[in-house]
Amino acid sequence: MTGKYSFDLKSEERRRALPSKIIVGQKDNESTKHVMLKFLAYVLFHRERLQIEPRLTDDNIPFEPDVIQLDYSLRPALWVECGECSVSKLHKLAVKIPDAEIWIVKRSLPEAESLYRGMEKEELRRDRYGIIGLDDAMFDEMCEMVAPRNQLTWFSGDFDPPTMQFEFNGLWFDTTFHILKF
């Protein structure tokens, strides 16, 4: 591991009870942008039993998730890929985890649309995936602000309409994001 980033969390949204603190590790081959995508995915998808990069005990799944929620039988219920992800991997995931929601979080709408076109070209199964394209200016600003220790206060966020309001390291963000269903 190259480094780790600590995030002190506070939620003003009753239905999103965030933990008080999480740590996101940075692997040797990962950029700070990848760390921030994992962090934002964790906060945006937050629910019970959500984890960042756990080791899976199922030998039939040869991949490591960025963010995952396991059900009570330790099968994936939610699988979130962040940043670069091949279309081939997404196809294999759909086969290996047929009952799980599969989401991909990208830093911008153009990146999300590019992945969507690649999925169309490779004729992946429809009604199986969700792709999130973040606001790239917001994302870049957060990446410039990230430090070894960070603070986030979450005020609101939803998928319908796709919006987020939060304060990150003392700066207010009120932003939208895009959802592409495939």
Entry summary:
About 25% of the residues lie in helices and about 35% in strands. The chain is globular and about 45 Å long.
Helix content: 25-40%
Query: Which word captures the global form?
Result: globular
Order of helices and strands: EEHEEEHEHEHEEEE
Helix/strand-derived category reads alpha/beta
Can you tell me about this structure?
This protein is α/β, with parallel strands linked by helices and 182 residues long. 25% of the residues lie in helices and 37% in strands. The chain contains 4 helices and 11 strands, in the order E-E-H-E-E-E-H-E-H-E-H-E-E-E-E. The strands form 2 sheets. Strands 3-4-5-6-7-11 form a 6-stranded mixed sheet. The longest helix is centred in the first third of the chain and has 13 residues, at 32-44. The protein is globular. The N and C termini lie far apart (34 Å). The relative contact order is 0.17.
Describe the secondary structure blueprint for this structure.
Blueprint: E1 3-11, E2 21-26, H1 32-44, E3 50-52, E4 67-70, E5 76-82, H2 87-96, E6 101-106, H3 109-121, E7 129-133, H4 136-145, E8 149-159, E9 162-168, E10 171-176, E11 178-181
Parallel strand pairs: 1-8, 5-6, 6-7
Antiparallel strand pairs: 1-2, 3-4, 4-5, 7-11, 8-9, 9-10
